[in-house]
Design a protein that fits this description.
The chain is mostly helical and 221 residues long. It has helices at residues 25-33, 40-59, 62-78, 89-108, 116-122, 124-130, 144-151, 156-167, 172-179, 183-220. The protein folds into two domains: 1-111, Rna Polymerase Sigma Factor, Chain: A (Orthogonal Bundle), CATH 1.10.1740.10; 113-221, Orthogonal Bundle (Arc Repressor Mutant, subunit A), CATH 1.10.10.
Length: 221
């Protein structure tokens, strides 16, 4: 994980301030502001897994996710003086991460989202397992990699709010704080995103069924 720390003072890799929950994020940030830059390594280690997971869910590419996570931690380090403590540090961090991933997606695309048809073609065997039992085919997908690819068929905003809720497990109020919107807006956006995801899943299942039938016909001929 060292390459995530390279843009900030190297000595942050040599010390640990978090000891069994005896120090809070706010206290670590205060230490950093007082010149204990090595404490930033603790913040990175504390939140790296969550930031990386969010970036991967949004970007669907491990290399892009690593680069995005590194950029996020650099942004956080250089912006710590802007953190006022009005929200929790984790909410502020998610906000920076969410905004950065949206920027990456919009720059990358202006590239099209993954099409449902290409997903069926590329991930046929995994989709067969996914629909083997109806209970598996919902928004709580067991196969994380396939789930991320299915999420990539949604718009950036739909992917963002589903990732915050379903993958990261944030409460509605936390999502509202991250996205700087009302609770009603969060609920409405989530409902629309879930509906679109279900429609995509049904389309994928239908495409897979058609493809499977055609393959059986070819083998039988």
């Amino acid at each position: 994980m060292g390459h995530f720390l390279s843009p900030v003072p190297s000595k942050i890799q040599q010390h640990s301030f978090y000891i069994e929950g005896t120090i809070t994020d706010a206290q670590v940030i205060e230490l950093i502001r007082k010149g204990h830059t090595e404490a930033y390594g603790d913040l990175v280690r504390q939140y790296h897994k969550r930031v990386m997971g969010y970036c991967f869910s949004m970007l669907s590419n491990h290399t892009d996710a690593e680069e995005a996570a590194q950029d996020v931690f650099v942004k956080v380090y250089t912006s710590l003086n802007k953190f006022k403590g009005d929200s929790s540090f984790s909410t502020w961090l998610y906000r920076i991460t969410a905004n950065h991933c949206l920027d990456v997606l919009r720059k990358r695309n202006r590239r099209k989202n993954v099409s449902l048809e290409s997903l069926v073609e590329q991930e046929g065997s995994q989709i067969q397992k996914l629909f083997a039992t109806p209970s598996v085919a919902d928004t709580h997908l067991e196969n994380r990699q396939l789930a991320d690819k299915i999420l990539s068929t949604l718009t950036e905003d739909q992917r963002q709010i589903l990732t915050l809720r379903e993958a990261e497990g944030l409460e509605y109020q936390e999502i509202a704080d991250v996205l700087n919107c009302s609770l009603d807006a969060v609920k409405g956006r989530l409902a629309r995103a879930r509906k679109q995801l279900q429609e995509n899943l049904r389309h994928i299942q239908k495409s897979w069924d058609v493809s499977n039938i055609e393959n059986k016909k070819e083998k039988g001929s």
